[in-house]
Amino acid sequence: MTSPIVRFAPSPTGRIHIGNARVALFNYLFVTMHHGRFILRFDDTDFARSTEEFAGSIEIDLAWLGVVPDAIFRQSERIALYEAAAAKLREEGRLYPCYETQDELEKRRKMQQARGLPPVYDRAALRLSDAERAKLEAEGRRPHWRFKLAPGVVEWNDLIRGPVHIDCAALSDPVLIREDGSFLYTLPSVADDIDMKITHVIRGEDHVTNTAVQLQLFAALAPQAPPPAFAHHNLLIGASGEGLSKRTGSLSIASLREEGYEALAVAALATLTGSSDNVQAVRTLAQLGRHFDLAHVSRNPARFDPGDLATLTHRTLALFEFEDVRERLAALDVVGHKAEPLWRAARGNLSTFEDILKWWRVVEGEIAPVREDTEFLAQAAALLPQEPWDETTWSAWVGDVKTATGRKGKALFHPLRLALTGEESGPELAALLPLIGRMTAIARLAG
């Protein structure tokens, strides 16, 4: 395979959700594993709804997931390219003006359905004479422009779905340009894919029919160039079977980040859900890429349960080495010689990354010790050995306390944990005790 070039083309009309992230990750992991290029292309020709704020938030969300574009484009800055493509289609008789209003088109569709006919546009605009068009324009009608589909079946070998056949007789000629002269998604997408030499289009299965139209556009605009290969994956749905939408903010990447889920847990669940691969925690995106294969993607809808993110975040944090999180710890002021041993001790006990602060206070700050049996704790404090301490100190000390007091099991260990950490459970005290230190331990045990 030559080095692939892919694109992720969101509309900056809202915050991206986990379904959008799935598309971005599929594309990014594909080119990462095949040493290609990933283009972020903002479909912002809807000037009324597209904003720079949403474009910026999409870049932030992708960066959080670890998706780094090789190039960024805005379709709003490339209008001349689309106008040239439209002019070529007009010259070839493939783009024609239509004057029907939405109400007129809706009435026509209902009449067709009532007669048992498919609601396909009947190309009435092609039968208008020059005089009739001039009359409509004199009345203030402004045309929208449709692409005239060639008859026949469009076929391609989908990298996920296998052989696909779409009969264009069942499709209406798509509108490419609105009455106000602005472009809909279809024409700019194909013109950009040709110009940017996109080799693979990986996107949701809701675009399968669009692909038949776009393949005809590729043939009309660049007849000598091969079109991209297409892969249409199953869609993520919510835990209750509902669809996802940028407009409702359902499962937005921003909200998942704010709830404390790990980016790699989100990426793994978004990518591996709905495939034959087991969802598992990963330490890096490169590791996730090694599990990713388009051939493993199922044809069935992929149900995304945010409840699974909590477990996967916990497992992901447990995989991280200190070097993976050094900068994140420093941002929380978890620094110094205790930072690394604390991370190793606590990482398996974290629900979210910021839970490390609780254990940082245990070893480096102030806590509220829980003293259930002050006499026993005073005995234990008196038996604390002199420093230096290491991870064998805990075992030796509780052995002495057991001998002196006759306690064992929970009656021995539980009061010591409560006094030393203020918590019912947590990391191994063999690792925490040397970090707490003798003076602090005596103060917490004896008060």
From TrEMBL:
<keyword id="KW-0030">Aminoacyl-tRNA synthetase</keyword>
<feature type="short sequence motif" description="'KMSKS' region">
    <location>
        <begin position="243"/>
        <end position="247"/>
    </location>
</feature>
<comment type="subunit">
    <text>Monomer.</text>
</comment>
<keyword id="KW-0067">ATP-binding</keyword>
<feature type="binding site">
    <location>
        <position position="246"/>
    </location>
    <ligand>
        <name>ATP</name>
    </ligand>
</feature>
<comment type="function">
    <text>Catalyzes the attachment of glutamate to tRNA(Glu) in a two-step reaction: glutamate is first activated by ATP to form Glu-AMP and then transferred to the acceptor end of tRNA(Glu).</text>
</comment>
<dbReference type="Pfam" id="PF19269">
    <property type="entry name" value="Anticodon_2"/>
</dbReference>
<dbReference type="InterPro" id="IPR049940">
    <property type="entry name" value="GluQ/Sye"/>
</dbReference>
<feature type="short sequence motif" description="'HIGH' region">
    <location>
        <begin position="10"/>
        <end position="20"/>
    </location>
</feature>
<dbReference type="InterPro" id="IPR020751">
    <property type="entry name" value="aa-tRNA-synth_I_codon-bd_sub2"/>
</dbReference>
<dbReference type="Pfam" id="PF00749">
    <property type="entry name" value="tRNA-synt_1c"/>
</dbReference>
<dbReference type="InterPro" id="IPR008925">
    <property type="entry name" value="aa_tRNA-synth_I_cd-bd_sf"/>
</dbReference>
<comment type="similarity">
    <text>Belongs to the class-I aminoacyl-tRNA synthetase family. Glutamate--tRNA ligase type 1 subfamily.</text>
</comment>
<dbReference type="InterPro" id="IPR020058">
    <property type="entry name" value="Glu/Gln-tRNA-synth_Ib_cat-dom"/>
</dbReference>
<keyword id="KW-0547">Nucleotide-binding</keyword>
<keyword id="KW-0963">Cytoplasm</keyword>
<dbReference type="InterPro" id="IPR045462">
    <property type="entry name" value="aa-tRNA-synth_I_cd-bd"/>
</dbReference>
<dbReference type="InterPro" id="IPR004527">
    <property type="entry name" value="Glu-tRNA-ligase_bac/mito"/>
</dbReference>
<feature type="domain" description="Aminoacyl-tRNA synthetase class I anticodon-binding">
    <location>
        <begin position="373"/>
        <end position="446"/>
    </location>
</feature>
<dbReference type="InterPro" id="IPR001412">
    <property type="entry name" value="aa-tRNA-synth_I_CS"/>
</dbReference>
<feature type="domain" description="Glutamyl/glutaminyl-tRNA synthetase class Ib catalytic">
    <location>
        <begin position="6"/>
        <end position="309"/>
    </location>
</feature>
<protein>
    <recommendedName>
        <fullName>Glutamate--tRNA ligase</fullName>
        <ecNumber>6.1.1.17</ecNumber>
    </recommendedName>
</protein>
<dbReference type="InterPro" id="IPR000924">
    <property type="entry name" value="Glu/Gln-tRNA-synth"/>
</dbReference>
<dbReference type="InterPro" id="IPR014729">
    <property type="entry name" value="Rossmann-like_a/b/a_fold"/>
</dbReference>
<keyword id="KW-0648">Protein biosynthesis</keyword>
<dbReference type="GO" id="GO:0016874">
    <property type="term" value="F:ligase activity"/>
</dbReference>
<keyword id="KW-0436">Ligase</keyword>
